[in-house]
Amino acid sequence: MAAAHRPEEAGILTLFLFPVWCPLVLPGLLMGRKAGRLVTGGKRVAQR
User: Fold this and answer.
1) Per-residue model confidence as pLDDT tens for the chain (48 residues)
2) CA within 20 to 30 Å of 27's CA: 17, 20, 38, 43, which one?
């Protein structure tokens, strides 16, 4: 495993990885909230 020894390298890696993990994490959080609402029987339930 290649580890970034210099702080500037770590900063560059963070900048490169941010746009990658951001779109992956956000939908996961949203789905987690929806799943939690379904499991707990959320207060806002769509009634037909």
Assistant:
1) 555 567 778 888 888 888 888 788 888 999 998 888 888 876 655 556
2) 43
